[in-house]
Structure formats: structure tokens, C-alpha cells
């Protein structure tokens, strides 16, 4: 069993799991004990009463540890108090003709579900794997694509114009003046397959993800609007 | 003896001040041991001994500081020191100076607080401090049990009820004062005179062996904060008082005075069976004052179904004989009479009936016409759904909760792998709602819009719902089958839509595991019970609970709505069943008598009776018109009873248990015999072997749920442990 400061063993579980599962428990115990003793020593030093660690210090260290890890349900008098406050409000009347009765939208899990989707590589220029969430308007995006040799990297720095015309299902982001830097590695076999002329303006279409989740929302929203 | 001395008997513990302690009027001569300041400066406990001949009480609570400022010579030095220590602790310097000036007491006082390590509980536990001689505890207890043995049979059983609380409080006092050896010896020698059903509690108390351990123990918190209630008739109480008067110097009268609440009952003393029937709960029996409220146990008036029925009748005109039509009308007329025990329709707001609900009611009515009437001669047919391969390696996983919808078409179960699975047990399939574009095309005013909005092609026999992050402890399908509620050990309650098959709301009130959830029979309301010892009332359109039913001393394990949705019953690990009123959250009944955790609770369809089953394998039936006494005790099972179900007309009670059997009981007989006499404290519950009609054993399949269909076919389900 290795001795030493338990705090410097951060991932005991992963280290030991494949080889010796029965040691995990022991090492975790040792880490706990050294943590408690460290805390106790800190308390003893703070109190400046004794240079040695006393029983009281250890008790306090254990208590701190327990308070951090475990909570108990609230005491009975607190519960009775809470109950009295809440039970004093009369039951609210029920709104007629409501359809499905749900809490306000922010307490429901009924919001629109968004997913990230890769656009197909339709542009013959730089393979811009630009992905965007529906509500994102980035100012600058850096897209790095690796060529097949993995030694040449193409860095595409785009300053995106924040003109967004929203309208399902497309969001159009206009790009101004893409600058392309090509850092070439050793004289290679692979010739970059693309050429960019600076100053060209490109238009990138980003498709808004219209997954199967939206239908589940819209009928509910319709009903809410009724 | 002055009456002004009786406040000194009030316990230091923050016990319920509204409890009236009948023994306060006992003529105990004033005790002669005056508290001395201990050598290490501990504050003396002023609980036990009224200072003879003095009007001064020196409590440690900040509430009452009755000091007679007559001059120092009239007061005991130790009292003075105690008060000054208290003032110093509270930093009341000017008060201290004034006091010292008036009394001429200028000695320095040392404030040491070794009980501070225990925090707030230290205050409460300090009540256990006593200077009693440890050796005499055992003798005192033995004398008490000898006295009980020798008592006349008439008083014996009621007086015997004090043995258990006296023993545990003696043990705790000895432990608190550090006399561990004597405490262990006391338990070993004296446990034999305690009834068997207290064995579990005794064992958990015996694990506490030092003062430091006392602070965190939950059972102790209960024992300290609530007084143990014993009900006694006047004669038994007088008999007990006579014994205590002889023994005033010992610990017994003191403990009885402080820790027990003796509820005085007029009438005859009870027999052994009667006393045993109500014992079991952690805090003793329920005091009479808790069971006095009137309960509206009747059913709500059924709404007008005449028009709907008439339409149906016209359709069946050719087939129906004239006689049949008449009986339908008669049945409807019966509902119009006013039931004095029924709650007014607006007592709690209930959702109004929509067209689909009215059609459902018509369907219920038609089914009830075709229903098989069950009785002791016509037993139900049982259809058992076994969950095979219900281990933790498959998607369904270890089944821990099952529910069947009211029209018996959907079976939903929750597993320990946090997955909910919904199956259709009729040929109709589970359909999902159409996607948005198609929904906008359908005609919203058509009669069958609710059918049209579901996509026919998406019908499946089984669907899984994922979302919980812990075992699903309970499932409940709403009466209109649009929603499903599930509670989990992760502390959340989730509401799922059975049309879009997604989770719609997460209710996060209970932070600790929620053990049970039920929809109300009228829909809209939900009740949940959890580890935080509360049951909560929710509605589907609020994210916070409407009512918090607090009062249990331990986890709330099962909850159930009354058929009129006005009351909620909750069964708990503190071995009592409580009935709560939804309109104001008050506890209207406390039923004690179970000797183990209550694990199943259900109301009869007429609303008058409540049946509860527990881990001690007994079913107790309670009459809601009465005052908290059991009507019948059905014992035949040998293991925890997980589920109870009443047949649709309330003549048969079915119970399913961990001992892998389903038992059928004759409930009609129970109600017949109960109606003749008024059930009160002096009647013992009916225990008749002939109430058991039949037993249906299974092969190693504990029964998790029972459900009577609308035509009285019994559906049962459980995981096969093969």
C-alpha cells in the first residue's frame, strides 16, 4: 500500500480498476482518512492551542466531511411550519375549458429541441464545415480543416457579417472577405485541392434543424393559444 | 403541594406544549435532591426536582426567567450560578450586572459548555441529565413490571403499555450520563417483559452506546420530540398513580411524568386484545383529540347522465326489452338522493366534465350493467401478468412498480433501471400524435378529432419512456389516459404525455426519494409521498405543491386518494396510517395498530372503509365513520402485503403479497358485522378465519399489483423470480 499524501491520488479508481478491483476500496478509505487528518491538523494549527492534533480537531474534521456529503431531511418542526404556511392558501379554482392542463412553459419540458447538424460538402471551395446553432450569431469563426496528409492545415478565418434573415427553415449568413491562410508543411505530396481568391463574397446556407421534436411542440402550443 | 411547581416538570425538550399531561395533578411529595453544581461546572438540569419550598424555577430555555428578586439569601447558590451562566452564554451583560447588584452575588462564574459539541440537540438531550443512582434503575424497572404483573386483569394490560417507553427512556438516561454498563445490563435483563413487536425498535436503540451517538439517531429524535401516548381509563390511571406515589424518589415517576402522555378515557378498561390491537406506532397510540373531526366519506353526486344514456338506449331499442330500460332509470334515480355523509360538490375544486369525460362515464355505466356480481359464492376470475426475465440485464429491468389504467387497457411499469414501460393489454395499440404539419390539416370540429389527431401508422404494443435518473418507485395512469405520473428515487416526480410519449413536467418538490404517486379519480390532482416524511398534493398545472401533509414521523411509503378526491390516506414507516383533508391540509385521523411499515392502502368504492396492509403481513380495515379503531384484522399472509384491491361493488377484497399469493376476503361480511355496533375503543377488531374465501398461490412470483376491471375480472401482476 503506497504511503503518502492521499490528496495526490486523484484518479485512484481508474488507475486500479483493471488490475485489482479489491484495492479500490482500501485506497479510497486511505484517501478519506488522510483528508480528515489533514483537515484536523489545519484546525489544530488555526486554534493555536496545541501543536498536536487533538481528538476534538478530528471530530470537527469528520463533522465537516459529513456535512458536505450527506444531508438529512428537514426536521419535523420546520416541516410543520412549511405545511402550515402552504396549507393556509385555499385551493385555487380550476380554469374551465383548458384542454391539457400544464404549468407555465418555463416549468415544462416542452421547448423546441435543437440539434446540431453537419451541412453537406456542397461548396467546392474550402470545405467549410460550418455548423451553427439556430440562435448563434458568431462574430468571428475559425475553421480549421486538415488535409489528408495531416501535415498541412488550412486555417480559414472568417469575419461574419451579422445579417441574419430568419425564416424557417433557413438561416442565411453572409460572409465578407474570407481570408485563407495556408501553412504548408514539408514539401509534400499533397497539393491543396482548393484555391481561394481573396475578396470573394460567399454565401453560406445553414439549415435549421427541423427534427422530429418540433411536431410534438407545435400542437401543444396551438392548444395553449386557444 | 403548590401548583406553581408543576411547570418545573415540563421537559426541557421542545416537546409539543399543547399536550396536556394528566399526571401533573399527581400528588407527589417534593423531592429532596437539590441540584448541585457539578465539579466541572455543568449546568444542572432543573427538570427533575422542584426546589423544595421555593417559587423559583431555573429552566434553561430562554422563555421563562421567573426570578424573585428578594435578595440572595433566599435563593440557592446553584440556581444563581445556573442563571448567571445562562446570561453569560447569551451575552446579556447588563442583565447580569443588574442581577448581581440586586442579589449581592459577585463571585466569578465560569462558563464551560461541553455539551456544545452536540449542537442544538445538546439542549434537547440535556434533559436526560440526571443524578439518579444508576444501580437503582434496574430495580425500579423490575418493581414496575412486578407491579404490572400483580395488577388485576382489568387494569393489567392498559398499565403494561407504559413498560416499553419507560424502559427505553431509562436506557437513554443511563447512556447519556455515561453509565454504559448498567444500561446494557438493564436492556438484557428487562427486555423479556416487553412485547415482541417492539423488538426492532429496541434493537436499534440498543445500538446507541454513548452520548455522542445519541445526537444523530433519527429514532431518538422522534422519541425526544414527541411524547409517547398511552390511553388509559380512569381506574387504571388511579391504580398506576397509587403505585407511583410509593416510589416517588425513583426514576420511574419522573420518566412517566416527562416523557409519556397519558390520555384519559372514560369507560371500561380494555382487554388484552383491544390494547394489543392499537399498539405498534412509534409514538404509541393516537390521542383521542386527533380523531374527532367529521369526515365526509360519501361519494360525490354523479352528474346528469340521463341524456347520454337515452341516446344509447335509442340505438339499442330493438334489442332491449322494456324491463331492462326501467332498471336503468331506477339506478339513475337512486343517485339523486342526498347522502348526508357526502361532501358538498364545491368543497374542493374539481375539473368540469368535458365531452370525452361524459362519454367515458357512459361507457363506465354500460360496463357496470354487464358486471359480474362477486360474493362469497361467486369468486372473481384472475388474470395474472407475469414479468419474465425481469432481471437487471434487459431493458425492462427489475420491475418495481406497476399500474393499470382504470379501463384496463394500459399497463405501465417502472423498473429499477429508471425506465418506464407502457404496454397495451387490449388489441388497441398505443398511438402517437401526428406531426405538426398533419395536425393543422385535420378538421378540429369533427366529432372524432381525438382519434384523428393520433397517427394510425404509429401504433405499437409497447413503448418505453426514459427520463428518470434512478429507480422508478411508483407509476400512476390518469383516469382519462392522457397522462402518466411516475415517481423516482432521484427525488423527482415526472408527468408524461401518453399522446406524444414524452416527458412534459418534472416536479421537484421532494428532494429525497419519492416512494409513491397517485392520480386522483377525477384527474387533475396528484398526491406523492416520500422520504422527507411528507405527502404533497400537486395539480398538473402548477409546478409547486398545493398542500404539504406533514406529521408523519418517518418516510411516507404509500398514498391513496379517497373516491371523492377530498381526502388522502398515507401509510408510513412509523407504522401509522393518517387521513388528510385536501381542502385545508389537516390530519383528520391517525390509525395505529400495524406492527410494521404500512405498505399498501386502499379505499373501498363506497368510500366508507379504508384497508391497509403492512410488512407484518396483516390487513387492518378502518371505518371512516368511526373514531380511529380497527374494524377488522385480516391475518393469513406470511409476508409484506404490497397491494390491496376492492371489487367494483365493494363486496370482495383482494390482497397480494410478497409470499407469492393472492388472497380473496369476504368484505361484505366485514361491513355487515361492523354496521351493527358502533366501533369505539372498547371493541376489538373482527378476526374471523371465515373471512378468507380463497388463496391463489403462484410459483415464486410476488404479487406487485392488483386491479379489478370494470366488469370485475381481477388482473394481477408481478415479476417472476425464477
Question: What would you note in describing this structure?
Answer:
Chain B: It is found in: Nucleus. Chain B: One of its GO terms (cellular component) is transcription factor TFIID complex. Chain B: Its main location: nucleus. The complex is a heterodimer of chains A (226) and B (722). Chain A is α+β, with helices and mostly antiparallel strands and 226 residues long. In chain A, strands 1-2-3-4 form a four-stranded antiparallel sheet, with no helix packed on it. In chain A, a hairpin with a 6-residue loop joins β1 and β2. In chain A, α2 packs across α3. The longest helix of chain A is centred in the first third of the chain and has 27 residues. The longest helix of chain B is centred in the N-terminal third of the chain and has 16 residues. The relative contact order of chain B is 0.08. Chain B has 19 helices and 31 strands. In chain B, α4 runs antiparallel to α6 and α6 crosses α12. In chain B, the strands form nine sheets. A four-stranded antiparallel sheet of chain B has the order 4-5-6-9, with no helix packed on it. In chain B, strands 10-11-12-13 form a four-stranded antiparallel sheet, with no helix packed on it. The radius of gyration of chain B is 30 Å and the shape is globular. Chains A and B meet through α4 and α5 of A and α10, α17, β13 and β17 of B.
Average pLDDT taken over every residue of chain A: 64
Mind telling me which CATH architecture of the largest domain in chain B this is? 7 Propeller
* Category from helices, strands and their pairing of chain B: alpha+beta
CATH H-tier superfamily of the largest domain in chain B: YVTN repeat-like/Quinoprotein amine dehydrogenase
Number of strands of chain B: 31
Indicate the mean pLDDT of chain B.
Answer: 80
Q: Total strand count of chain A, please? A: 4
Structural class of chain A: alpha+beta
- Span between N and C termini of chain A? 69 Å
Instruction: Please work out how many helical segments of chain A DSSP would assign.
Output: 5
The biggest sheet of chain A, with number of strands, parallel, antiparallel or mixed sense and barrel status, is: 4 strands, antiparallel
Which percent range fits the helix content of chain A?
Answer: 25-40%
Largest sheet of chain B: 4 strands, antiparallel
Strand order of the largest sheet of chain A: 1-2-3-4
Measured by residues with Cβ under 8 Å of the partner chain's Cβ, the largest interface is: A-B, 40 and 52 residues
Radius of gyration of chain B: 30 Å
Amino acid at each position: 500500500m503506497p504511503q503518502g499524501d492521499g490528496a495526490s491520488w486523484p484518479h485512484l479508481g481508474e488507475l486500479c480498476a483493471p488490475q485489482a478491483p479489491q484495492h479500490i476500496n482500501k485506497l479510497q478509505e486511505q484517501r478519506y482518512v488522510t483528508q480528515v487528518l489533514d483537515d484536523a491538523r489545519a484546525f489544530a494549527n488555526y486554534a493555536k492551542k496545541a501543536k498536536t492534533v487533538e481528538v476534538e480537531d478530528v471530530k470537527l474534521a469528520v463533522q465537516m466531511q459529513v456535512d458536505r456529503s450527506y444531508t438529512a431531511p428537514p426536521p419535523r418542526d420546520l416541516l410543520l411550519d412549511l405545511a402550515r404556511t402552504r396549507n393556509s392558501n385555499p385551493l385555487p379554482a380550476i380554469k374551465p375549458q383548458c384542454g391539457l392542463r400544464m404549468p407555465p412553459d418555463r416549468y415544462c419540458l416542452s421547448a423546441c429541441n435543437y440539434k446540431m447538424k453537419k451541412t453537406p460538402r456542397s461548396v467546392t471551395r474550402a470545405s467549410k464545415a460550418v455548423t451553427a446553432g439556430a440562435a448563434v450569431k458568431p462574430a468571428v469563426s475559425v475553421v480549421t480543416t486538415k488535409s489528408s496528409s495531416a501535415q498541412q492545415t488550412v486555417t480559414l478565418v472568417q469575419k461574419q457579417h451579422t445579417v441574419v434573415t430568419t425564416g424557417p427553415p433557413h438561416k442565411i449568413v453572409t460572409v465578407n472577405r474570407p481570408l485563407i491562410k495556408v501553412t504548408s508543411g514539408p514539401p509534400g505530396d499533397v497539393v491543396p485541392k482548393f484555391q481561394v481568391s481573396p475578396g470573394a463574397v460567399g454565401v453560406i446556407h445553414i439549415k435549421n434543424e427541423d427534427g422530429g421534436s418540433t411536431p410534438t411542440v407545435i400542437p401543444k402550443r396551438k392548444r395553449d393559444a386557444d | 403541594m403548590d401548583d406553581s411547581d408543576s411547570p418545573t416538570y415540563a421537559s426541557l425538550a421542545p416537546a409539543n406544549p399543547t399536550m396536556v399531561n394528566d399526571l401533573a395533578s399527581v400528588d407527589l411529595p417534593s423531592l429532596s435532591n437539590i441540584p448541585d453544581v457539578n465539579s466541572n461546572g455543568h449546568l444542572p438540569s432543573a427538570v427533575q426536582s422542584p426546589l423544595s419550598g421555593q417559587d423559583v424555577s431555573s429552566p434553561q430555555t430562554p422563555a421563562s426567567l421567573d426570578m424573585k428578586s428578594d435578595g440572595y439569601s433566599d435563593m440557592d447558590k446553584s440556581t444563581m450560578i445556573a442563571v448567571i451562566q445562562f446570561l453569560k452564554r447569551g451575552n446579556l451583560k447588563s442583565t447580569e450586572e443588574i442581577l448581581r447588584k440586586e442579589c449581592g452575588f459577585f463571585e466569578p462564574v465560569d462558563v464551560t459548555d461541553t455539551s456544545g459539541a452536540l449542537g442544538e440537540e445538546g439542549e434537547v438531550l440535556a434533559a436526560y441529565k440526571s443524578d439518579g443512582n444508576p444501580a437503582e434503575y434496574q430495580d425500579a424497572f423490575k418493581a414496575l413490571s412486578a407491579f404490572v404483573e400483580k395488577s388485576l386483569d382489568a387494569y393489567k394490560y392498559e398499565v403494561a403499555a407504559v413498560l416499553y417507553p419507560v424502559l427505553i427512556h431509562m436506557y437513554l438516561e443511563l447512556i447519556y450520563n455515561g453509565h454504559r454498563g448498567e444500561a446494557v445490563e438493564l436492556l438484557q435483563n428487562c427486555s423479556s417483559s416487553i412485547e415482541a413487536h417492539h423488538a426492532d425498535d429496541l434493537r436499534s436503540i440498543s445500538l446507541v452506546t454513548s452520548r455522542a451517538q445519541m445526537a444523530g439517531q433519527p429514532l431518538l429524535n422522534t422519541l425526544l420530540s414527541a411524547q409517547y401516548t398511552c390511553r388509559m381509563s380512569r381506574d387504571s390511571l388511579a391504580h398506576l398513580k397509587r403505585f407511583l406515589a410509593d416510589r416517588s424518589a425513583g426514576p420511574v415517576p419522573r420518566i412517566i411524568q416527562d416523557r409519556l402522555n397519558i390520555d384519559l378515557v372514560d369507560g371500561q378498561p380494555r382487554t388484552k386484545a383491544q390494547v394489543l390491537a392499537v399498539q405498534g406506532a412509534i409514538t404509541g397510540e393516537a390521542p383521542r383529540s386527533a380523531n374527532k373531526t367529521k369526515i365526509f366519506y360519501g361519494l360525490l353526486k354523479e352528474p346528469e347522465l340521463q341524456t347520454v344514456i337515452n341516446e344509447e338506449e335509442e340505438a339499442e331499442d330493438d334489442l332491449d326489452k322494456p324491463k331492462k330500460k326501467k332498471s336503468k332509470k331506477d339506478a339513475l334515480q337512486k343517485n339523486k338522493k342526498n347522502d348526508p355523509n357526502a361532501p358538498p360538490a364545491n368543497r374542493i375544486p374539481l375539473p368540469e366534465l368535458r365531452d370525452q369525460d361524459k362519454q367515458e362515464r357512459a361507457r363506465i355505466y354500460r360496463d357496470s350493467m354487464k358486471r359480474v356480481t362477486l360474493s362469497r359464492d361467486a369468486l372473481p376470475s384472475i388474470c395474472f401478468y407475469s414479468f419474465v426475465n425481469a432481471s437487471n440485464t434487459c431493458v425492462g429491468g427489475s420491475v418495481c412498480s406497476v399500474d393499470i389504467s382504470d379501463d384496463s387497457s394500459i399497463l405501465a411499469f417502472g423498473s429499477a433501471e429508471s425506465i418506464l414501460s407502457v404496454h397495451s393489454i387490449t388489441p388497441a395499440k398505443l398511438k402517437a400524435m401526428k406531426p405538426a404539419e398533419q395536425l393543422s390539416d385535420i378538421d378540429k370540429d369533427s366529432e372524432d378529432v381525438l382519434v384523428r389527431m393520433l397517427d394510425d401508422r404509429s401504433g405499437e404494443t409497447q413503448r418505453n419512456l426514459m427520463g428518470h435518473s434512478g429507480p422508478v418507485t411508483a407509476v400512476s395512469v390518469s383516469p382519462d389516459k392522457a397522462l402518466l405520473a411516475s415517481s423516482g428515487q432521484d427525488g423527482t416526480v415526472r408527468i408524461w404525455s401518453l399522446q406524444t410519449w414524452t416527458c412534459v413536467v418534472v416536479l421537484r418538490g421532494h428532494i429525497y426519494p419519492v416512494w409513491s404517486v397517485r392520480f386522483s379519480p377525477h384527474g387533475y390532482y396528484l398526491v406523492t409521498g416520500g422520504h422527507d416524511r411528507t405527502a404533497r398534493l400537486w395539480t398538473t398545472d402548477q409546478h409547486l405543491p398545493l398542500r404539504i401533509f406533514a406529521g408523519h414521523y418517518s418516510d411516507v411509503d404509500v398514498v391513496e386518494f379517497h373516491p371523492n378526491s377530498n381526502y388522502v390516506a398515507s401509510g408510513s414507516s412509523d407504522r401509522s396510517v393518517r387521513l388528510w383533508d385536501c381542502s385545508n391540509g389537516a390530519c383528520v385521523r391517525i390509525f395505529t395498530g400495524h406492527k410494521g411499515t404500512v405498505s399498501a392502502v386502499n379505499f373501498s368504492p363506497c368510500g366508507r372503509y379504508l384497508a391497509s396492509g403492512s410488512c407484518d403481513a396483516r390487513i387492518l380495515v378502518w371505518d371512516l365513520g368511526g373514531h380511529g379503531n380497527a374494524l377488522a384484522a385480516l391475518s393469513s399472509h406470511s409476508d409484506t402485503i404490497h397491494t390491496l384491491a376492492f371489487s367494483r361493488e365493494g363486496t370482495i377484497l383482494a390482497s397480494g403479497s410478497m409470499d407469492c399469493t393472492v388472497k380473496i376476503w369476504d368484505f361484505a361480511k366485514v361491513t355487515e358485522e361492523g354496521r351493527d355496533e358502533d366501533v369505539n375503543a372498547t371493541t376489538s377488531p373482527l378476526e374471523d378465519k371465515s373471512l378468507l374465501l380463497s388463496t391463489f398461490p403462484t410459483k415464486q412470483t410476488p404479487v406487485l399489483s392488483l386491479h379489478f376491471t370494470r366488469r370485475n375480472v381481477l388482473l394481477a401482476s408481478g415479476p417472476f423470480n425464477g
